[in-house]
Amino acid sequence: MTNNTLADFNKLTTAEAEALFRREVLSEGFAGFRRLLDSLTNAIKAAGDTEMDIVEQSVAKAKRLFPEPVDFSPSWEKIWPELESTIAAKKHIFANISHAERAGEWQVIMDNPLVVQEVVCYPALTFEDAAYLYAYFRPQLEKSEYIRLQKIQTVIQEIGG
Fold this sequence. Notes:
By secondary structure, the chain is mainly alpha-helical. Helices cover 49% and strands 11% of the residues. The protein has 6 helices and 3 strands, in the order αααααββαβ. It has helices at residues 6-10, 15-28, 30-46, 52-65, 79-96, 127-137; strands at 106-111, 120-125, 146-151. It has a 3-stranded antiparallel beta sheet with strand order 2-1-3, covered by helices on one side. Strand 1 (106-111) and strand 2 (120-125) form a beta hairpin. Helix 2 packs across helix 3 (30-46), helix 3 (30-46) runs antiparallel to helix 4 and helix 4 packs antiparallel against helix 5. The longest helix has 18 residues, at 79-96. It starts with 5 loop residues before the first helix and ends in a 10-residue tail after the last strand. 22% of the residues are buried. The model has no long low-confidence stretch (mean pLDDT 93).
């Protein structure tokens, strides 16, 4: 399984092809599964409105083929719920912000007002990048933390000399 693209993965339409793919990934171990996860993550990041259902189906297939990702790495114990939550959050953004409102500069802000820590801000983003960051971080929020996706209407910026 030296070339693992999501397109190749999605072409696995028979039980035999899926079983062969599964055996190849299992024989490669961490590296093979990591390529699959990277491909899925990149697809989630790049997907627009019309591709989200396809990406969601791809994650469901991967989850079915590899129900115990913790076998590859302890850090992947909750990878399927994390990817599913990211997809759900991104679909929520797409459903609530019309195409007409998406042009321009966006930012994502995270903070927990009840603790002393820095505010995290990702400025100067496209809508697509901001939607992904929001979707990525949204499921990971701790108690009292908040996340904001906002469009910048007016900017005054100066750079020190």
